[in-house]
Amino acid sequence: MTQLVISDVSKRYGATAALDRVSLAVEAGSRVAIVGPSGSGKTTLLRVIAGFEAPDSGTVTLDGQVLADGLAIAPAHRRRIGYVAQDGALFPHLDVAGNLGFGIPRNEPDRAARLRELMELVELDAAMLTRRPHELSGGQQQRVALARALARKPALMLLDEPFSALDTGLRESVRQAVARVLAKAGITTILVTHDQGEALSFADQLAVMREGRLVQTGRPAELYWRPADVETALFLGNAALFKADIAEGIVSCGLGEFEAETGRRRGHGTIMLRPEQFQLSSVGPGLEAIVEDVAFRGGQYAVTLRTKHDGAEARFTAHVSSTEQPQLGSTVFVSVKGGPFLLPDIVA
Fold first, then answer.
1. Residues 95, 210: one domain?
2. Cβ contacts of 89 within 8 Å, gap of 6 or more
3. Half-sphere exposure in the Cβ direction for 186 (13 Å, CA)
4. Total structural domains in the chain?
5. Do 71 and 8 share a domain, yes or no?
6. Mind listing the pLDDT tens digit for each residue in 292-316?
7. Same domain as 192, residue 61
8. Does 50 map to a domain?
9. Sheet of 278-281, strands arranged across
10. β-bridge pairing 156-160 and 81-84
């Protein structure tokens, strides 16, 4: 069931179009991540949904209730929407119980039990209820901020870069914990993030924005392997792009000839391969290549390769396991796992 519907929403700041006729449908109980470069409009869209900004035109509805119809908007506090900011925005003068209880009426029956229930929900010890925010780690503060937002039993949760201030290792564990909490509560969630990896792992649906427009939406794996254009392909991860000749079901490039979905296209175009598709061997099979650079990245090496095929030279990066370090300057053989994707927006 569709729960949140954004229809043709536009917002300008002077001559700048922050949002340009954005439309997005969010299913109940799903997790949506909105990504895009700085200035793409993703935070403005989140603020419009939250009620912090009024759109110039377009509508926003939640469970059939109109939250915004152009400049006519429902107040933010009446939208049944939870909001967690980048820094958590906890009240420093209140302990955890005071922060959580801010959204719970003081005369509510079993209020103390509700506070303990919220702590359990976000996987924190109820003994922390008496602590002040400065006595908590960054990850604990974000979980308390989430619990405070959940206290009002929202229909929709908005997460605005909630993990960006955390250390890398902590960020992943907190993100996983938050995902578990929201899934358990069954709350529809929208995450805005600059971290593509975070978006790909967190979301059921991914929305990519650029220059105020929504350029592609879909399941994360779909967008990663079948991007709408070159910019989206490169934004969502490393990619090797090759000019290619297109025939029926076949593309030919500097790496060789590959089977591919070409539809009715013929002539020339651009194909995409992800670095993890390249497999390296010291004895073959595959196309001969020279190792020009090796960069250690923990679990993998980023290996820069140079090849020649039918007189055409190509340079690209392959990702291989860190247990398989190739030697700088050595000769290896490159094969490709899975077919290339023919980018749809590059037509000669």
1. yes
2. 145
3. 2
4. 2
5. yes
6. 999 999 889 999 999 987 777 889 9
7. yes
8. yes
9. 278-281, 331-336, 287-296, 300-309, 312-321
10. parallel
